[in-house]
Design a protein that fits this description.
7-stranded mixed β-sheet; about 30% helix; about 25% strand; globular; transferase
Length: about 325
């Protein structure tokens, strides 16, 4: 280990950090064993299934390198909560893993923990365990999120059927535009778009509506076209997606109106990702959702604009 890779001298060791930063985040739940064990014991709930999801974030890839540590922590919780929202699950708790570069000293790690505390309290989450290590590379954080659904009621990706409608829970394109705004590439006078990228809102509020009417669902993280494609692939169907029917925020609509080619701009919005809305299918319209297409026999996604099929490439973000 080089001198540049050594942790600052004032840092507590791994167990000291766990005790001071993370033990308070367990909120005292007995299943976490005060983070003194290598595992947690999750009690079963009669009539419920446990839903487990996991997402990781890397500095410079999933968030900007200069991002505040508390915002990184809150974003990490929220992108995982978005997965639970798409499954119709009620959040319960999480396991955390952090790989700290030497540039993140005690103050930065405290600020990260404060972000976890803020959103943990807001969403009723308890930290159940995890690990903390050092790395010579950029900050890496990952989180395993747990939630509950009534037995047999989790909404899978594979339930779409020909004749279903294709729907989305809210505006598309804000996340991609927000990243551009955060980079200074487009104007964002009131900060709305930047905020949508930095701190997305997981759509936990649509849980009951999804349970009541959705046949399949996914959260929109990689891009609407790509995530609709996950549903199409898992269900063995074709999704006809009308790009000109996408719900847009006023900020995104303003950006769209300033573009020379409306179709190309709509493709960018539909493929950009980081919206953390829910795309779903169902036999009839779901309250609060916008109908953006339909399910037919076949395979894949068929994006159209003003009645014409358009090319979208991969349809969204893919890691290599």
């Amino acid at each position: 280990m080089s001198a540049a890779d050594k942790p600052p001298e004032d840092l507590p060791d791994e167990f000291g950090q766990i005790a001071r930063l993370y033990r308070p985040l367990t909120r005292g739940v007995p299943e976490a064993f005060d983070l003194l064990d290598d595992a947690a014991a999750i009690p079963s709930r009669a009539g419920h299934d446990l839903v487990v999801t996991k997402d990781a974030m890397v500095e410079g890839v999933h968030f900007l390198a200069a991002e505040a540590p508390d915002i990184v922590a809150r974003r990490l919780l929220r992108v995982n909560l978005s997965d639970l929202a798409a499954k119709g699950a009620e959040p319960y708790g999480y396991f955390l893993a952090t790989a700290w570069p030497s540039s993140y000293g005690w103050a930065e790690r405290q600020r990260f923990a404060s972000g976890l505390r803020e959103d943990g309290e807001a969403f009723g989450l308890a930290l159940l365990g995890g690990d903390t290590v050092s790395t010579p590379g950029p900050l890496n954080v990952s989180l395993t999120m747990l939630g509950w659904v009534p037995a047999g009621r989790m909404i899978p990706r594979r339930g779409a059927r020909p004749g279903d409608l294709l729907m989305v829970s809210g505006p598309i394109g804000d996340g991609w535009l927000g990243l551009a705004a955060a980079r200074g590439e487009i104007d964002d006078p009131n900060g709305y778009l930047t905020a949508r990228f930095r701190l997305p809102t997981p759509r936990l509020d649509v849980r009951d509506a999804l349970r009541a009417g959705a046949s399949a669902a996914a959260d929109v993280s990689d891009g609407l076209v790509a995530d609709a494609g996950h549903i199409a692939r898992a269900s063995g169907v074709r999704l006809r997606l009308r790009l000109d029917a996408l719900p847009l925020s006023p900020a995104a609509a303003d950006w769209l109106g300033a573009q020379p080619d409306r179709t190309t701009a709509l493709v960018l919005l539909a493929c950009g990702g980081d919206d953390y809305e829910v795309v779903c299918t169902g036999a009839s319209p779901i309250v609060g959702f916008t109908v953006i297409g339909e399910v037919v026999e076949g395979q894949g996604v068929e994006p159209t604009c003003e009645g014409r099929i358009v090319e979208t490439g991969a349809g969204g973000w893919r890691h290599r």
